[in-house]
Design a protein that fits this description.
Elements (H helix, E strand, L loop, with lengths): L1 E6 L8 E5 L5 E4 L10 H7 L10 E3 L5 H4 L2 H6 L6 E3 L1 H31 L11 H8 L2 E3 L6 E2 L4 E7 L7 E9 L2 E7 L22 E5 L10 H18 L3 E5 L5 H14 L8 E4 L1 H12 L6 H6 L12 E4 L2 H7 L6 E5 L9 H8 L6 E4 L8 H7 L3 E4 L2 E4 L3 E4 L9 H8 L9 E5 L3 H13 L5 E2 L6 E3 L1
Parallel strand pairs: 3-4, 4-5, 5-6, 10-11, 11-20, 12-15, 12-16, 13-14, 13-15, 16-19, 20-21
Antiparallel strand pairs: 1-2, 1-22, 2-3, 7-8, 8-9, 9-10, 17-18
Helix pairs in contact: 4-5, 4-8
Length: about 475
């Protein structure tokens, strides 16, 4: 059999990995959007370097757009087989892919106004809501920790990945000439001390492993330190300085962790009596879905539910859906906390909140998740004194803080812990995916130190015989 890496190869977005068996069956692992390739994003996302009509089945690790975002386009271009994933991921994809189509529609309208002005032909969005609705009919739920037999040659099993609600590691078993080989795809690996989700689970011995490497050269803060640092920043910004705390956060995962942390502060009477806004329609939908899937919650959160039956809601928290209400937040003169998407500050309402508040030294911008170097969030983390939003330059007068332990990605020690269930001598090859090349090179050396002998860092479009 062969495997080809069509995305998230020496890069952190566009997850797509294609397995082809000796009999010619093709299994696609993930089908995500490229999100950090600048002007190349549109070209890369519009077309595939394989024929979607020839894919026999697809398996999806989780709902994040860099893993699921191009599924409607895959279907638009002829894929009509089954997409296997968890029920929670299906529920999330229904709202997240619809949101992606909505964003494309708005973006393409803006681009086409400029193209018409320049006498150029108008573009179409990569896909529209009708394509999302068609794609959702192909999804089929599979339970975690239960072997699913697809046919005589192919079976697979999901184990908890602990990254976001519904996220799993995928273990594909392929039988050829009477011999069965296991290919494990980690998906994105979460934290072992996640505030909400169960820890990443050990998995059966694999012959080949595709392992994410986003934080392959970094260590996170301790979560207890992070909670205290968040409370300290809230008090300093909102109580002492009477300013606004702006938190860019991904709609799914990070937003709910921040809300849950603030909810616990409220229960402990530690949270100042100030307004807290969650300004993201997608985050509202994702939070409602999370409330329905407590099967992924860890023991601490399950116990907390006996104290507070809604860990994602408290008296001074307001979820904002309408654009008019979002705009009114910027008219507030007093202190408040604003949580809004996207986490990298590359799209969504957060760009407006940053633009309107970055020039006030009383305010704080708190980065709580992964940001590519090219993103606005990346520029702020790097300490740039001027950033560009909507084509205009803004001096950075607000304070910029970073808390890394709210990240949903494992650091390098946690990734090694995730892999520790494996006999390293039995792993024929370990492929590093979903990471920047420089980071992967460092992580490769760390993996060799713990016994993995054959570690590959595939290039985009590179194929390997297994």
């Amino acid at each position: 059999m062969n495997i080809t890496f069509y995305g998230a190869a020496r890069n952190v977005t566009g997850s797509k990995h294609l397995i082809e068996t000796a009999s010619g069956k093709k299994i696609l692992l993930d089908c995500g959007f490229f999100q950090n390739r600048g002007k190349d994003n549109d070209r890369l996302n519009r077309s595939f370097s394989f024929d979607p009509q020839q894919i026999d089945l697809m398996i999806l690790s989780h709902a994040h757009i860099d893993h699921s975002g191009n599924i409607p386009n895959l279907v638009k271009q002829g894929f009509n087989k089954t997409i296997f994933t968890t029920q929670a991921t299906i529920d999330l994809c229904e709202v997240m892919l619809a949101d992606s189509a909505y964003i494309q529609s708005g973006d393409i309208e803006y681009i086409n106004r400029r193209r018409r002005r320049d006498g150029q032909k108008a573009l179409e969005p990569i896909y529209e809501i009708e394509d999302v609705e068609k794609a959702m009919k192909l999804f089929a739920p599979v339970a975690v920790n239960k072997r699913f037999q697809y046919d005589d040659e192919i079976s697979f099993e999901f184990t908890d990945a602990g990254h976001i609600l519904g996220s799993v590691s995928v273990h594909v078993f392929i039988t050829e000439n009477g011999n069965t080989k296991q290919i494990t795809f980690s998906g994105d690996v979460g934290r072992f001390n996640d505030l909400i989700l169960k820890a990443p689970a050990p998995f059966p011995q694999a012959d080949y492993i595709l392992c994410e490497s986003t934080y392959g050269n970094r260590l996170h803060d301790q979560s207890t330190d992070a909670r205290q640092k968040l409370l300290q920043i809230v008090n300093q910004t909102c109580v002492e300085q009477k300013g606004k705390l702006i938190i860019p956060a991904f709609s799914l995962g990070r937003t709910q962790e921040i809300i849950y942390t603030l909810d616990r502060f409220k229960t402990e009477n530690k949270l100042p009596s100030i307004p807290v806004f969650v300004d993201s329609p997608l985050a509202i939908d994702a939070t409602n879905i999370m409330r329905k899937h407590s099967e992924f919650f860890n023991a601490d959160l399950v116990n907390y539910l006996h104290v507070d039956d809604d860990p994602f809601g408290f008296s001074n928290l307001k979820y904002v859906r309408k654009v008019e209400e979002s705009k009114k937040i910027n008219d507030l003169k007093g202190p408040c906390i604003i949580i809004s998407a996207s986490g990298m500050i590359e799209a969504g309402r957060i760009k407006h909140h940053i633009k309107n508040n970055i020039n006030d030294s009383r305010n704080t911008i708190l980065i709580v998740g992964y940001c590519t170097q090219e993103s606005i969030g990346g520029h702020l983390m790097r300490g740039d004194k001027i950033i560009k939003i909507f084509g205009n330059e803004y001096p950075v007068k607000a304070n910029v803080e970073v808390i890394s332990s709210f990240s949903a990605h494992a650091d390098y020690l946690e990734l090694i812990k995730y892999l520790s269930c494996q006999d390293t001598a039995a792993v024929k090859k370990l492929f590093l995916v979903h990471g920047e090349y420089e980071v992967q090179q460092e992580f490769k050396e760390k993996l060799k130190e713990v016994g993995f002998k054959n570690v590959e860092i595939p290039e985009e479009l590179q194929s390997f015989k297994l």
